[in-house]
Structure formats: C-alpha cells, structure tokens
Specification:
CATH architecture of the largest domain: Alpha-Beta Complex
Largest sheet: 8 strands, mixed
Number of domains: 2
Helix content: 40-55%
Shape: elongated
Order of helices and strands: EHEEHEHEHEHEEEHEHHHHHH
CATH topology of the largest domain: Spore Coat Polysaccharide Biosynthesis Protein SpsA, Chain A
Strand content: 15-25%
CATH superfamily of the largest domain: Spore Coat Polysaccharide Biosynthesis Protein SpsA, Chain A
Structural class: alpha/beta
Radius of gyration: 25 Å
C-alpha cells in the first residue's frame, strides 16, 4: 500500500495564551511567555518537540504553524526557520477553532485540497514513532473515506476532569491496513467528577485533539458547527475556490448576517460616504455646467460617470487592501488574518 503520509500537510497550533500554566512558565522562563514557547524538558520547548515529532512523517516545507501576534518576541526566530508562507499570524488568540481555520485557509492557498494532520503543540508523547503510526492509520482512513475527519482518542487511565472526552459510537470506516474508525456519539469538555467516572467505565476516550482529514472535509465540518466563523473567512475561501463575484457577494452578505454590528457600522459609513461624495460631485458638476452654459439636465450626465469612476476606484482599493491583509497568494510574508 502507498504510504498514506505522502502529500500530507501538517497544521501545528501554537497561538494559545497558556493562562492555566502561566505561574509555572513564569517560574521556569522568568517572563510571560505561553507554555508552547517554554523550555520544559531538556531545554526544548513544547513547540520544538512537536515540530521534531511531525518531521518524522511530514516534510518541513509542508508544515504550517499558527501563532498569535502578541507572542512575536517568542516566535521571531521561528519565522526564519520555516519555509516561505508557512507561518500564519493571527492578530490575537481568538480560540482554537479560529486558529485552526486560519491554518486551513493558509494550507488551502498554498496547496489546494490536500490531506492535513492537525497537531496541538502542548502534548507530551513518550513514543514519537508509535504516535506517528497512529497518525498514518488515521491518514489511511481518510484516504478510504475522504468525507471523514478522524480525531485520535487516548485510552484513559483515570477519570480526569480537566481533559476533553470522546464518547464513541459504532464502527463507521475501515482502512485497507485494518485501521478502524468509530463514529463520535458525543464530545464532553472537562466533565464533572461523576460524569468523568461514568465515561471511564463506559469505554470513552480522552480527546487528543490530533485530527486528520482533507481540507474540504475540515471546512465542511467547521461550516456545519460554526457557520458564522466560516462566513468571517468567506473572502479568503472565495479566492481559494476561484468562484465568481456573485458567490463572493453571497458570502459577504452571509458574513454580515452573522456579524450585524459590523454590518451596521459599515452600512452607516458607506451611506455617509455616498452622501458626501454625491453632494461634492453634484456641486462640482453644477458649477461646471453653469460655467459652460449647458442645460441643467446635463448635470446627471456629468455626475453619474464621475460617481461610477469613484466607486470603481473604491472597490479596487478595497480589493487591494483585502489581498494585502489576507495574503491570498503564496507570498513569503506572514500576514495578519483578522478573525
């Protein structure tokens, strides 16, 4: 069987603030750095260990790392170590889902619809090669069923209340290498003690949050669970898919519906700009027409082309700004993606 890891990209999530471990990381590093940038073991950070682990089965130039702008002093050297375009910078940490979608969009812009393995960078794993084999089994499953997103479960040792849990259902897929996937009946996030004990007895698993799937399967899953978040990323997704202006307009309207405050601000600003520009153009064209001695009806003939030129320039400027902000191409810079 062909190695399922061939052609796979890795998405490493390193944008969290690490507040729960801040007292420990402050004691170790002497500053406010998040846990992923803290040298816990043998002088190596959790992010360093995660990258070294991922190197075992994903090429370095196919790895994208998501970070947050406020942590720049801790990831500055990383920017020079990664291949161009492989560092995705968020303006701030907006949660795991936003960080993951940010990275998925970057991978889509670089490589299109490819298989992706998602890795948090705050795990300690004692056997990296055994872990790699588990990821390869998951890749085999998503090659067999492209619509699946596979999350790796961990066999629990106790009723932990600070972890997420996976309550598995029945078998839903089987790969040619014998790997079996089970449907997720329910996710439990940091359950109470009694609930955790019940999950332990029932055969539930700890949620590793290591996930494998194709880019389009991930996007479909996020769109189903968090449509507003996907709508906020609509301009980038539209550019990646290369769809026409009408679909871009549809996604923009959808984004506005999920963010009515932004819609109200933009609508008011657009209305004021329209009134101001129309008034200035009317005044200018009226003066020109009066100076030329032309009939008053010709004022609109002057206003409308001038207004069309103004709107076209405004759209072109907005599109240029959008391309600069979202980095829709494959430029070497590491953009800030507002989410």
């Amino acid at each position: 069987m062909k190695n399922p890891a061939q052609g796979t990209w890795a998405l490493i999530l390193a944008g969290g603030d690490g507040m729960r471990l801040r007292p420990l990381t402050r004691q170790i590093a002497g500053d406010e750095r998040p846990k992923q940038f803290c040298p816990f073991l043998d002088g190596e950070t959790l992010l360093d260990r995660t990258r070294r682990r991922v190197d075992l089965f994903v090429r370095p130039d196919r790895q994208v790392v998501v970070v947050s702008q406020p942590h720049e002093q801790y990831y500055r050297e990383l920017a020079g170590d990664l291949a161009p375009g492989r560092l995705a910078v968020q303006p701030s940490n907006r949660g795991t889902a936003a960080g993951m979608l940010c990275g998925l969009v970057r991978i889509a812009s670089l490589a299109g619809a490819v298989p992706v393995a998602v890795f948090p960078c705050d795990h300690y794993i004692s056997d990296d090669r055994a872990f790699g084999r588990s990821v390869e089994h998951a890749l085999g499953l998503v090659h067999a069923r492209r619509d699946l997103v596979v999350v790796l479960g961990i066999e629990p040792t106790h009723a932990e209340t600070q972890y997420g849990w996976i309550e598995p259902g029945g078998e839903c897929a089987r790969a040619s290498d014998g790997a079996v996937a089970f449907a997720v009946r329910r996710f439990w996030e940091k359950p109470a003690r009694a609930q955790a004990q019940m999950l332990l007895r029932s055969g539930a698993l700890w949620n590793s949050f290591v996930m494998v799937g194709w880019v389009d399967a991930f996007l479909a899953l996020v769109a189903e669970a968090l449509p507003g978040l996907v709508a906020a990323f609509a301009p980038v997704l539209v550019t990646w898919h290369g769809v026409g202006a009408m679909k871009a307009l549809f996604f923009s309207i959808t984004a506005c519906l999920y963010n009515w405050r932004a819609f109200a601000v933009y609508a008011l600003a657009a209305l004021l700009a329209f009134v101001a520009v129309f008034a200035l153009l009317s005044l200018a064209s009226g003066l020109l027409v009066a100076a030329a001695g032309a009939p008053r009806d010709t004022t609109l003939v002057v206003i409308l082309p001038a207004f069309a030129i103004f709107v076209s320039a405004l759209i072109a400027s907005a599109y240029a700004s959008y391309c600069d902000v979202f980095d829709t191409g494959t430029a070497a810079k590491s953009p800030t993606i507002p989410v």
